[in-house]
Amino acid sequence: MRINCLIVDDEPNAVHLLTAYVRQVPYLHLVACCYDAGEALDWLRREAVDLLLLDINLPGLSGMELARTLMPRQLVIFTTAYADYAVQSYETGAVDYLLKPITPGRFLQAVSKAADRLRPLPPAPAELPGPAGDYFFVKSGKQIVRVRFDAIRYVEGLKSYVMLVTDAEKIIVYKRMQEMEALLPACFKRVHLSYIVNLDAIRSIEENHVLLPPARLPISAKYRDAFLAAIRDRSL
């Protein structure tokens, strides 16, 4: 397998380091280096690229803004000196988020994730009409991931897809909240337009928030009564 990648960064030293890292990975092939988002867009209009190594702090259009203009199938690894954009990176479906200075080991870990997404997949199993057993399969990017229901702490809705949050990872699934809600067992309850929580993962409820440390999620008026009724069913 060969992965064509494009470096987009306005810092020559960062471009030099990433170029060296790319050349050390046998399956990576560097097609070009761009120093701003406009140059990168011009390249992407002409050529297909498997993977973008994309800085966020770029002159003019930022890397985050560029990523939001790309097709969902375009793989992106953010490379940045700022930790503040990590949450936003999940909303773009990025493969990974690398903080500068980037170490060789961390770089290899990120591009390995990209390689996993690009590998051919076996035929997808039929989707379950509802919960059966203690796990289900979901399609995330180019992977089909097995997820145990009891591993999910909560589900967050993000526009046209959802994020399954577990203790170990965050899994992006291209489904709407209503579809995801139908797949989950009875121990999952909607507390907000953007959140479904696992009752078994709740630490406490304080006023209009449910605590699943370290997360603190709001309870909206629309879902409050049904949620509290489910809690009362489990109360002593």
Automatic annotation (TrEMBL):
Tell me the ranges covered by the HTH LytTR-type domain, including all copies.
136-233
The record's section on SMART domains has: LytTR (SM00850), REC (SM00448)
Q: Which PANTHER family does the UniProt entry name for this protein?
A: STAGE 0 SPORULATION PROTEIN A HOMOLOG, TRANSCRIPTIONAL REGULATOR-RELATED
What organism is recorded for this protein? Solirubrum puertoriconensis
For this entry, the protein name equals Two-component system response regulator
Modified positions (4-aspartylphosphate) are D55
Q: Which InterPro entries match?
A: CheY-like_superfamily, LytR-like, LytTR_DNA-bd_dom, Sig_transdc_resp-reg_receiver
Keywords, alphabetical:
Phosphoprotein
- Domain (Response regulatory) ranges: 4-115
One Pfam family of this protein, by short name? LytTR
One example of the protein's molecular function in GO is: DNA binding
